[in-house]
Amino acid sequence: MGYNSRDLPAKKPANLGIKSDKTKLFVPLFPVNGKVHTDPELGDVLLRKSQRARRLSIRVHPLKGVVVTVPYWVPYARGIAFLESQREWVRTMRQKVSARDASLPEGEDIESLRARAKAVLPDRLRMLADRYGFRFNRVAIKHNTSNWGSCSSKGNINLNLNLMRVPVPLQDYILLHELTHLHHPDHGPAFHGELEQLLADHFSRHLEEDDFRAYLQPIGESRAQHRITSVLERALKTYRPV
């Protein structure tokens, strides 16, 4: 989960002769383009200098903790001040992240999640593909924290094992999302139009199931162009791969 400030300059200063550093950080190590600020309440907070950032931002990550991204021309002190100004928001996000982590079934670790995902997700993907006329190449179960799924140009689909932590309608949303990428590799109007049609038909087949019925009211009240997609995407953002 992240929070952005909007009071910084939109553009960085003129060329300062600094080359982009694309080194990835692994907390709690002390990276060369950042430092750790120890907060009495929040513990170690990573202040991460970024060549690409245009504003201060905060993310609360289930594994990395609190990360403050600081544009490289902004002093660390301003990052600390920004953290202090958003302390209440950080508290709230940490509570939500902790609650989601606690949603893992008791005693279930990543490997047991992987086993369940392999037993459930490929068959459900094939079922949806057959129903709607999609043909994919291979399906693989992955474990990452960056996305719920992906579809390659070769028709290979990757699914995140963390999908086993979300309700079935949200699982199906990701499966249909990736299948739609077989027709539309981008997220343009054609992609969203087809995905919305698939979701509408899919929901119409499962109206008697409580998991699906729970989304009907917000879908009916939505004013978004693609109502089902919008509601499910917003619901999915309350979860996070770990």
Describe the structure.
The chain has a five-stranded mixed β-sheet. The protein has 242 residues and is α/β, with parallel strands linked by helices. The chain is built from eight helices and eight strands. The protein has helices spanning 76-85, 87-101, 110-132, 168-180, 189-204, 210-213, 216-221, 227-236; strands spanning 2-4, 34-39, 43-50, 57-61, 65-71, 139-142, 149-151, 157-160. The two termini are 12 Å apart. The longest helix has 23 residues, at 110-132. The protein folds into two domains: 2-101, no CATH class; 110-236, Metalloproteases ("zincins"), catalytic domain (Zincin-like), CATH 3.30.2010.10.
In short:
This protein is α/β, with parallel strands linked by helices and about 240 residues long. The chain has helices at about 75-85, 85-100, 110-130, 170-180, 190-205, 210-215, 215-220, 225-235; strands at about 1-5, 35-40, 45-50, 55-60, 65-70, 140, 150, 155-160.
What is the number of independent domains?
A: 2
Highest CATH level, the class of the largest domain: Alpha Beta
* CATH homologous superfamily (4th level) name of the largest domain: Metalloproteases ("zincins"), catalytic domain
**Biggest sheet, in brief?**
5 strands, mixed
